[in-house]
Design brief:
The chain is of the alpha/beta class. Helices cover 34% and strands 19% of the residues. Bound molecules: D-xylitol-5-phosphate and zinc ion.
């Protein structure tokens, strides 16, 4: 896989933790204008939540949103979170649209099926991530963690921004962390705010996704939230 500056944000970061604003809480009518200041003031990458109305009870965005974000942010790492059934149907379209990392869920793919899809994503030129939902045991993720660039611990039941952080999932982070290489990221997603981030960092998380804690503030206060998340 040819490493690009966007890939290196995850693989050889110049600082940690990484902060990834989730555009799900952005203004869908002016997404570029909403996101650009976040990247200029401390955001390391953008997180795109893809929901199919089946794996989760909500519908959000597809490859076209990724393509537009890539057009306006040509060098930014785009972290695509596939909360969909049959993610294998969509990975090529997102890679063609400029995704940097594609994270799918261990609830849809485990064991050889998960590593096979990671392999396909790598061969197509993107990074691969594996996510685990709060009620799901972390063991199937531990089994295949070495094949992934990003391991994502969900700290809400996925579907919507603005839900409360579930602290018990941090035990999973503590179990995953010792297995990881320096080029792998341990990401958390859901209810991440300046209040909950310190516990995440203490549990070994190095990559924080946050939607409502950032976009829920007036534009002039968002850089301070990103700074506070960083700790
Ligand atoms: C949840 C999504 C998250 C969501 C986070 O289903 O995967 O990325 O945007 O939103 P907050 O940070 O508001 O919990
Ligand atoms: Zn997400």
């Amino acid at each position: 896989m040819a490493a690009t500056p966007a890939h290196s944000v995850f693989q050889s970061p110049s600082r940690l933790p990484l902060i990834g604003p989730s555009i799900l809480s952005g203004d869908f009518g002016r997404m570029e204008a909403d996101c650009r200041p976040l990247l200029e003031h401390g955001g390391d990458y953008l997180h795109l939540d893809v929901m199919d109305g089946r794996f989760v009870p909500n519908l959000t965005m597809g490859p076209d949103m990724c393509r537009w974000m890539r057009k306006y942010f040509p060098t930014t790492a785009l972290d695509v979170h596939l909360m969909v059934q049959e993610p294998e149907r969509f990975v090529d379209a997102f890679i063609e649209a400029g995704a940097t990392n594609l994270t799918f869920h261990v609830e849809t793919h485990q064991g050889p099926a998960a590593t096979k899809l990671a392999d396909h994503i790598h061969k197509a030129g993107a990074l691969a991530g594996l996510a685990v939902n709060p009620p799901t045991d972390v063991a199937p993720l531990l089994d295949v963690a070495g094949a992934f660039d990003v391991l994502l611990i969900m700290s809400v039941n996925p579907g919507f921004s603005g839900q409360a952080f579930i602290p018990s999932v941090l035990e999973k982070a503590r179990r995953v962390k010792p297995l990881l290489r320096a080029d792998q990221r341990l990401e958390v997603d859901g209810g991440v705010s300046p209040k909950t981030a310190p516990d995440c960092l203490r549990a070994g998380i190095d990559t924080l996704v946050s939607a409502s804690a950032i976009f829920g503030k007036p534009a002039g206060e968002r850089a301070a939230v990103i700074q506070a998340l960083r700790g």
